[in-house]
Design a protein that fits this description.
The structure is a homotrimer. By secondary structure, chain A is of the alpha/beta class. Chain A has helices at about 15-20, 40-50, 100-120, 150-155; strands at about 25-30, 65-70, 75-80, 85-95, 125-135, 140-145. In chain A, helix 2 (about 40-50) runs antiparallel to helix 3 (about 100-120). The longest helix of chain A is centred in the C-terminal third of the chain and has 23 residues, at about 100-120.
């Protein structure tokens, strides 16, 4: 599928990667499907994640571990159901170990991008967007198998 | 899409709304799709949420923040796979700050509605339903952008 | 749907079942759909869960409570988006009360099965797989309605 030379896969991530391994899951009502470009939103939000830097100027989220997945519901109910309400829920799960400032900025930047994305329809579409960041709650195991990390980590 | 006049959007919810912001996500095996009306279940469960009252008679879940989203799996395996088993997983995520009694009653009422919904097929369909409520575990950021809350909160 | 005689449904699980109630949710990029058999992966992983035994030789995950559900995203972005990257996220949610060794072995065995499943395409598909196990974080309610457990628990 890809012409790139492939570095050896890592069976287990380093500690540094463990702390930051992020993914953003978007769940939304299907009435938005024809009204907005969700693939574009995924790319925009991935780019916002890739642009995050910590207090020392280092990339917060590793490139090979950044991913955004969006799922339209097949069935839904929002509020009192008396209008064509829409809802977008965004959940970013990241490892522990980041400062409050880094987490706050990531959240603010992502939410700003969500607001900008939906601005063209926000004045004619009743909708709610909620973004929450979870710091890997209750996690007792974390393993990975990837040929993406080494691709981006190579010198 | 909607003829209703629109109040100004809120960029950040009040504390009161923060504590209760609920959403219910339903994940289910696709063998149920043709056997039951999942849109009806979503509406029923949203209504159950809207009817919840706390010890002081106040609505537990704000109308504009109540939403139910249902997703059929594309692929699945249940138990030993020797029969046409079905499974429905319901997860209600709500903010912290509610009493144990309120949470228990919300769970019991939702589970009762799930049981009633599936009663017509429960004696001929091998199936399991699990309902869990999580109190926003590990949450480190919570932001929203909505024109729904002000719609329902206006005098 | 099923010819099997049906035992009476349980409205609430026993404590023993509560501790282990597992489900595994797989979220993945849709570019994998035509390249691998996700239904086969679901079955394989369910079997790995069913084979788990604790220090006393007892089945870790009850048969009637074991389920795997897989959902392809409708939209996605991975890493820098410059190639046809794929991503598979696997999350096993289980109740509390298992030993660290049991949780570690379950994770290792599941990850090994994931690696084996994707081995045929791993050298030509840029992809990342992440498996995380959560111990029911923040859970404040847990109810069930099922005719599966008694089916498998009967003498």
């Amino acid at each position: 599928m890809s012409p790139r030379p492939r570095p050896p896969a890592t069976a287990r991530a380093s500690n540094a990667e463990h702390t930051a391994m992020p993914h953003l899951v978007i769940l939304y009502t299907p009435n938005l499907e024809a009204r907005t470009d969700m693939t574009a939103l995924c790319r925009t939000l991935a780019d916002v994640m890739l642009e995050q830097r910590d207090e020392d100027g280092r990339q917060v989220f590793p490139t090979g571990g950044t991913r955004v997945l969006a799922f339209p519901a097949a069935h839904f109910a929002v509020a009192d159901g008396r209008d064509d309400y829409a809802f977008v829920y965004l959940n970013l799960r990241m490892g522990t170990g980041r400062s409050d400032a880094v987490k706050r900025k990531a959240g603010d930047d992502l939410l700003a991008a969500v607001r900008a994305h939906f601005a063209p329809i926000f004045d004619r579409q009743l909708m709610g967007c909620t973004l929450q960041i979870d710091e890997s709650p209750g996690q007792v195991y974390d393993g990975k198998h990837s040929n993406l990390h080494p691709l981006f980590n190579k010198g």
